[in-house]
From TrEMBL, chain A:
UniProt keyword annotations, A-Z: Dioxygenase, Oxidoreductase
Organism lineage: Bacteria, Pseudomonadati, Pseudomonadota, Alphaproteobacteria, Rhodobacterales
Organism: Jannaschia pagri
Pfam families: Dioxygenase_C
Assigned protein family: Belongs to the intradiol ring-cleavage dioxygenase family.
Gene3D superfamilies: Aromatic compound dioxygenase
Highest taxon of source: Bacteria
NCBIfam families reported in the protein's UniProt record: protocat_alph
Protein name: Protocatechuate 3,4-dioxygenase subunit alpha
Intradiol ring-cleavage dioxygenases domain location: 42-170
Listed InterPro entries: Intradiol_dOase_C, Intradiol_dOase_core, Intradiol_RC_Dioxygenase, Protocat_dOase_a
TrEMBL record, chain B:
Similarity field: Belongs to the intradiol ring-cleavage dioxygenase family.
Entry keyword Thylakoid: no
Low complexity bias: start-end ranges: 26-44
Keywords, in A-Z order: Dioxygenase, Oxidoreductase
Domain of life: Bacteria
Region of interest: Disordered: 1-44
Organism field: Jannaschia pagri
PROSITE patterns per record: INTRADIOL_DIOXYGENAS
Keyword Signal in annotation: no
The Intradiol ring-cleavage dioxygenases domain, residue ranges: 76-104
Name the UniProt record assigns to this protein: Protocatechuate 3,4-dioxygenase subunit beta
Pfam families for the chain: Dioxygenase_C, PCDO_beta_N
């Protein structure tokens, strides 16, 4: 039996009500917002931050971003949810540096998967953060990305960790993945 | 399980010009196809323990004790399956919506229709071992929205569904049978080839509770596995 995936629709401007009601000012519904707690996992602590920029360079301040990554041993299991509805649109993730992961007889370079939804985004956007210091030569996913665009998937070291800005459009448009 | 490649023709294009917000937010380059790796075939698992007793009752989960939300009492239920027709059991379904007057309880929302002090507009349920879910709410109202003209959203409920792998993650919207606004909605009509019809929940007469609530049935299909020669056909 084969059927087609349900069509996607935008999460709209009020996605925070549904996915993080405490953060959105609806207290008392849930004990806490899923994915908002501190990340407790094996590995070297690391802080990532960034913002999402539209085709005119404006910060997208109504998005929700989800994270899925491996811990320091390369075992997937860390999930988190963040909003970009602060004044400057920055999201911040205090996590651990993922370890390399086995895939198809080889190794994938350490990476953090992101899924982004917001008003104006018709299908949740999947992308990945890689770390510039790592060896990416055997990574089966990066191998599919034109070399000139791979830099859009690299975190940029900054004062207290890394920065990863997501460009929805423009000359630096982030590579999004059709998984 | 490895995922079947996503059929992008069943989804709205990234930029659907009639939906104004997508013009500057939709990526202009096609997404790059990658193999489904363990990062995509695994995902977060939530136990039934995350749910509170009223999480699936939007009529009462934000109401003062003894009070209820105003609106047409409505049951929404259905099944979550994958493209292979298999149940997606024990997966989290999160929903959010406007109140009966078409007003969201959100800091940035300023529509004329009043808030209902007893309605939050947020709920969540888990599917059972057959992939079934059910929640109770009031039917959301239609509302006007800024899109450059006289645009009205049809009554709708937002759905967020996880599945078993991060690559199955889906957000969509449910519409109601018989709503003439679906055909006029730039967001619903951004789905190619009349695909909005697939998101219209029919009235489910059998599940309607006499003297209480009407029921609507909304089935959700997530991406499924790549078939292998070893896969048994049920």
């Amino acid at each position: 039996m084969t059927q087609r995936e349900s069509p996607s629709q935008t999460a709209g401007p009020y996605v925070h009500i549904g996915l993080m009601p405490n953060h959105a000012g609806l207290p008392g519904l849930y004990d806490g917002d899923l994915g908002a707690g501190p990340i407790m996992a094996e590995g070297q602590p690391v802080t990532l931050r960034g913002r999402i920029l539209d085709g005119e360079g404006a910060s997208v301040t109504d998005a929700v971003l989800e994270v899925w990554q491996a811990d320091g041993t390369g075992t997937p299991g860390i999930w988190a949810r963040r909003s970009t509805d602060g004044p400057d649109g920055d999201w911040v993730l205090d996590t651990v540096r993922p370890g390399p992961m086995r895939f198809d007889g080889g190794w994938m370079a350490p990476h953090i998967a992101l899924w982004i939804v917001a008003r104006g985004i018709n299908l949740g956007l999947q992308t990945r953060i890689y770390f510039p210091e790592d060896d990416h030569s055997a990574d089966a996913v990066l191998a599919q990305v034109p070399p000139g665009r791979r830099r859009t998937l690299m975190a940029v070291p900054d004062a207290d960790g890394y920065r990863f800005d997501i460009h929805l459009q423009g000359p630096d448009e982030t590579v999004f993945l059709n998984i | 399980m490895t995922l079947r490649p996503r059929d992008m023709s069943g989804h709205p294009p990234a930029i659907a010009p009639a939906y104004r917000s997508s013009r500057l937010r939709g990526p202009t380059q096609a997404p790059i196809a990658i193999p489904a790796t363990p990062t995509e075939t695994t995902g977060p698992v939530f136990g039934h323990g995350v749910l509170g007793p009223l999480d699936g009752d939007l009529i009462r989960n934000f109401a003062a004790p003894g009070q209820m939300a105003i609106g047409q009492r409505t049951i929404v239920h259905g099944r979550v399956t994958d493209e292979a027709g298999r149940a997606v059991p024990n997966t989290l379904v999160e929903v959010w919506q406007a109140n009966a007057g078409g007003r969201y309880r959100h800091a940035k929302e300023g529509y004329l229709a009043p808030l209902d002090p007893n309605f939050g507009g947020c709920g969540r349920v888990m599917t059972d071992d057959q992939g079934r879910y059910r929640f109770e709410t009031v039917k959301p109202g239609a509302y006007p929205w800024p899109n450059g003209g006289n645009d009205w959203r049809p009554a709708h409920i937002h759905f967020s569904v996880f599945g078993s792998g991060f690559g199955q993650r889906l957000i969509t919207q449910m519409y109601f049978e018989g709503d003439p606004l679906v055909a006029r909605c730039p967001i619903a009509q951004s789905i190619p080839a009349g695909g909005a019809e697939r998101l219209v929940a029919p009235l489910d007469w059998e599940e309607t509770v006499p003297m209480d609530a009407r029921a609507y049935r909304f089935d959700i299909i997530l991406r499924g596995p790549l078939a292998t020669p070893f896969e048994a056909t049920p």
